């Protein structure tokens, strides 16, 4: 994938990876290596000049609607309540728009249930600016999940949070993954986050990004936060850190 025409910037090249249905994959790598580009290619926001992207056995040729996305900065519309922000994807996607009009009460109930799952019961009528950063991230997750996506793409969704809130949200995501069987791809700079949450971790090279390591995480689920203090957990984090440092040096 090259940005800005034939002479433009080559963001990723020879980038191959496969994520199985229901799997939790994490993507880590040096800053600027093309992680967000990978997310945009998978979701069909960009179409690569060379190569193929396949989601649920279909070639990606336009934005994929079985995907839910959450990014680092929750972009909630300030003039809509949290609940109305969560319902927004249903208004945008054609297929859902008609159903939303007919079955609004059903969708409101679903949004309220999601809010409860992420610990925001009763906050639906608040405006985003009345919520803390961590609460907005939680609401952002509800918005990514409202249309019951088969694939959830998370791009640094907890980056801006303090470590306690981040760990709390790791558990929310862990439980969502266990309960809904959704396939998840998480881009993160936080190696502990990757090892805590993922079944498989892909390490990318420096730009132009490609996969230089495919690491299976051996820990059984459900994982408890206590695992963060185990030496075999930290060995994996340490090794990944070395892989990324080497990739940066090689750049
Ligand atoms: N729309 C765009 N137009 C031009 N260049 C872009 C565009 N988006 C990204 N790039 C460039 O492509 C390269 C890869 O960017 P990308 O955001 O995918 O990396 P990243 O690994 O997610 O970065 P970070 O870890 O810093 O968030 C960078 O050099 C970036 O400047």
TrEMBL record:
Keyword Transport in record: yes
GO molecular function: ATP binding; ATP hydrolysis activity
Domain of life (superkingdom): Bacteria
Keywords linked to the UniProt accession: ATP-binding, Nucleotide-binding, Transport
Pfam short name (any one): ABC_tran
PROSITE patterns per record: ABC_TRANSPORTER_1 (PS00211), ABC_TRANSPORTER_2 (PS50893)
UniProt-listed InterPro entries: AAA+_ATPase, ABC_transporter-like_ATP-bd, ABC_transporter-like_CS, ABC_transporter_ATP-bind, P-loop_NTPase
Domain ABC transporter: 1-231
Family: Belongs to the ABC transporter superfamily.
The protein's name: ABC transporter ATP-binding protein
Organism: Neoaquamicrobium microcysteis
């Amino acid at each position: 994938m090259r940005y800005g025409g034939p002479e433009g910037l080559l963001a990723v090249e020879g980038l191959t990876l496969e994520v199985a249905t229901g799997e939790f994959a994490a993507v880590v790598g040096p800053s600027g290596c093309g992680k967000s580009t990978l997310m945009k290619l998978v979701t069909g926001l960009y179409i690569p000049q060379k190569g193929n992207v396949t989601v649920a056995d279909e070639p990606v040729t336009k934005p994929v609607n079985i995907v839910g996305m959450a990014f680092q900065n929750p972009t909630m519309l300030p003039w809509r309540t949290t609940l109305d922000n969560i319902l927004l994807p249903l208004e945008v996607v054609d297929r859902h728009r008609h159903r939303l009009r007919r079955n609004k009460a059903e969708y409101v109930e679903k949004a309220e249930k999601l809010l409860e799952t992420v610990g925001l019961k009763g906050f639906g009528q608040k405006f985003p600016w009345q919520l803390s950063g961590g609460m907005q991230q939680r609401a952002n997750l509800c918005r990514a999940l409202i249309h019951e996506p088969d694939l959830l793409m998370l791009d640094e969704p907890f980056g801006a949070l303090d470590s306690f809130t981040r760990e709390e949200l790791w558990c929310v995501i862990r439980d969502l993954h266990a309960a809904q069987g959704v396939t998840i791809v998480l881009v993160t700079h936080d190696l502990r986050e990757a090892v805590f949450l993922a079944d498989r971790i892909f390490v990318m090279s420096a730009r132009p990004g490609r996969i230089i390591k495919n690491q299976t995480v051996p820990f059984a689920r459900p994982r408890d936060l206590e695992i963060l203090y185990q030496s075999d957990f930290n060995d994996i984090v340490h090794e990944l850190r070395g892989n990324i440092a080497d990739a940066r040096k090689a750049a």
